[in-house]
Amino acid sequence: MTLVPFDDRDGLIWWDGELIPWRDAKLHVLTHGLHYASAVFEGERAYAGHIFKLREHTDRLIESGRILGFEIPFDADAIDAACTRVLEANGMTDAYIRPLAWRGSEQLSVSAQATRIHLMIACWAWPNLFGSDRMKGVRLGMAPWKRPHPETAPTRSKAAGLYMTGTMSKHEVETQGFNDALMLDWRGYVAEATGANIFFVMDGALHTPIPDCFLDGITRRTVMALAHKRQIPVIERVIMPEEMSKATEVFLAGTAAEVTPVRQIGELSFEPGAITHTLLTDYEALVRMNPDAVRLALAA
Ligand code: PMP
Fold first, then answer.
1. Residue to mutate (ligand 1; options 255, 259, 286; most atoms within 8 A of CB)
2. Catalytic: 170?
3. Taking 90 as the threshold, does the pLDDT of residue 1 lie above it?
4. Which domain holds residue 250?
5. Do 272 and 155 have their domain in common?
6. In the 3-class helix/strand/coil scheme, how is 51-83 assigned residue by residue?
7. Per the confidence metrics, is the pTM higher than 0.70?
8. How many domains, the chain?
9. Contact of 283 with 225, CB cutoff 8 Å
10. Which of 97, 157, 183, 274 is deepest in the core (most CB within 10 A)?
């Protein structure tokens, strides 16, 4: 796979209210966000020109910043409009959208009260996190790192710093030939993958861990609503790693991953089955609807 470096591409990036040429969107090296991980971000997808659940992503971005103690200097309407504007300015209808807010360079110490908060939004084509492997099912290895206690890290924030152990875990299992890492939490309960939530089919019902120390993903909640519509029971509960062998199907859910079947976790093998297929198809249909139709489709 040839990687086109992210700093050397054509296009426009929205930065603090202006669209600027992609290659000019550079930061000074003495930026607080870089040294102390004082940054929060979102990952969104546009399908056929509509950003799926845009307001939910924007609200989470603002809340992620507040959890880290800063206020993004744009309101939700302005951020929504900027996301749509950057998509249009790049002539894209189907894309991944990445807003990022960070502390600037006015102060470079643990205390950062004087820093200004910045916001940028970029978008690029990103067909699926797992590419062509996805429909066969992806292979998960067990992560060497655990999701922390909510008093150890701001686990409800989509904070850049929380991805450090995700990258370390993913690298570790990639060297063993897996596609992604399954992370347990600090208690040893099944938590999530490095960038997506996890679901298990057991006895015809959907089982998923309680998101009390990791993101309650927007895709996760969407999949639960879709399952409800199909009268598939959904059970949020503590899931121990030993129970995973009882699952007949497993899948991941996340904005970048969408609904992706899992065919292996460590030594265990699974087949992508009927429930995964139904929810994957329902999700693909839903994300391509316009926002009003999405609201109607998910209404109880
Ligand atoms: N967990 C992690 C660690 C993630 O990075 C993501 C992707 N944002 C998710 C779960 C799924 O969240 P969402 O469905 O809102 O994209």
1. 255
2. no
3. no
4. 131-298
5. yes
6. ECCHHHHHHHHHHHHHHCCCCCCCCHHHHHHHH
7. yes
8. 2
9. no
10. 97
